[in-house]
């Protein structure tokens, strides 16, 4: 079987369940707390900038690596928030969302037979990208009930065929933010074994309570081996614009660019100046968003407790996890398939993100990036049906 067909088959479970749940939501008139996209838009000044760019005729191919103002804004953002210096001319690449940046980086550096260590449960595009490259995915558990990184398994997973570490923190779907000690272990392993590190940092600003985002590239010896990936979609509530970026030393960015140009070639011209402005001027807006999301997290958690579930409180992302066994289910897929018809609410089962299906079987992911009114209505439906 051609490898691309195999990748599509192996990685199909998460997209398939997303499509099934979305179809159920439409058919049953359910509130969709499954897929992770906000129901409000980003800052007004950013939206106005995009409209103006369209009116001004910025609708043709932008430069292959992205427009210079956006590359400069990405570099300035990294310096301002993390003290990381990247040359916008040679060390920044604009991509069609973080998903393309991840795929391009994996295809650039992973050869057939190479092993890629990733945190399990996996974001759903990782499986397809690794298999398209002919690589072998090695999962290291961030498993329930505590959802902490299995550091012993991580140490044991690194071997002679390991080529890369793929690290996403804050972590989707669990909401875990890796600790300083966990990140230090990752840096020691990467340096000791001379590994490429690809970091998925799309939720870098969606962190709560006392959590802090610490990019792996800030550790000594890590900048030169790390491809940092992020995007505007989560930070500025513009998931449909698909404007992402990769940052790395010039020789690594050149390799990623060589792949990217044959994936989408270039990305959304009129959105690029808008995201540049948002990165330069949007820190206060993002701080407000983070505060709002923390309130929404706590609002949904309270509602889930009221129906007998005990949510694992996330320190990042906009996803919350519950074990559904207290409600009489031992299988998250069965629970999520029943939920729309019974309660008019949609969630996503964890196990579609796992190789070790049993580890994810009882868990369900809920998205809280919705208006308070939507969250309240979802909770009211859940409480009414559970009471009945």
Automatic annotation (TrEMBL):
Pfam families: Aminotran_1_2. One of its GO terms (molecular function) is kynurenine-oxoglutarate transaminase activity. Residues 31-382 form the Aminotransferase class I/classII large domain. One of its GO terms (cellular component) is cytoplasm. Its EC number is 2.6.1.17. NCBIfam families: PRK07777.1. PANTHER family: FI04487P. This is N-succinyldiaminopimelate aminotransferase. It comes from Microlunatus parietis.
């Amino acid at each position: 079987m051609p490898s691309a067909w195999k990748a599509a088959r192996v990685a199909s479970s998460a997209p398939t369940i997303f499509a099934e749940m979305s179809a159920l939501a439409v058919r049953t008139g359910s509130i969709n707390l499954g897929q992770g996209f906000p129901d409000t838009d980003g800052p007004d000044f950013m939206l106005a900038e995009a409209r103006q760019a369209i009116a001004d005729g910025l609708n043709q191919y932008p430069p292959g690596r992205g427009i210079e103002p956006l590359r400069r804004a990405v570099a300035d953002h990294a310096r301002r928030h993390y003290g990381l210096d990247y040359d916008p001319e040679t060390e920044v690449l604009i991509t069609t969302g973080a998903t393309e940046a991840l795929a391009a980086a994996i295809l650039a550096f992973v050869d057939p037979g190479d092993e890629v260590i990733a945190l399990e449960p996996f974001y759903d595009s990782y499986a397809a990208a690794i298999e398209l490259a002919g690589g072998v995915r090695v999962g290291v558990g961030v498993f329930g009930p505590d959802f902490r990184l299995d550091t012993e398994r991580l140490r044991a997973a690194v071997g002679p065929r390991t080529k890369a570490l793929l690290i996403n923190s804050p972590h989707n779907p669990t909401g875990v933010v890796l600790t300083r000690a966990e990140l230090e272990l990752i840096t020691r392993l990467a340096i000791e074994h001379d590994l490429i590190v690809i970091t998925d940092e799309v939720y870098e600003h969606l962190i709560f309570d006392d959590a802090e985002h610490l990019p792996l590239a800030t550790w000594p010896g890590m900048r030169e081996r790390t491809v940092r990936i992020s995007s505007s979609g989560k930070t500025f509530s513009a998931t449909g614009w698909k404007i992402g970026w990769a940052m790395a030393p010039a020789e690594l960015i050149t390799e990623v660019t060589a792949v990217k140009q044959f994936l989408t070639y270039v990305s959304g011209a009129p959105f690029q100046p808008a995201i540049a402005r948002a990165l330069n001027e949007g820190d206060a807006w993002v701080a407000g968003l983070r505060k709002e999301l923390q309130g929404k997290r706590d609002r949904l958690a309270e509602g889930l407790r009221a129906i007998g579930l005990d949510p694992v409180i996330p320190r990042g992302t906009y996803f919350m996890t519950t074990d559904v066994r207290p409600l009489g289910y031992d299988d998250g897929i069965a629970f999520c398939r029943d939920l729309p018809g019974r309660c008019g609410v949609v969630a996503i089962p964890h196990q579609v993100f796992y190789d070790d299906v049993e580890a994810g079987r009882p868990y369900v992911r809920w998205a809280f990036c919705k208006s308070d009114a939507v969250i309240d209505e979802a909770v009211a439906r859940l409480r009414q049906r559970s009471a009945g």
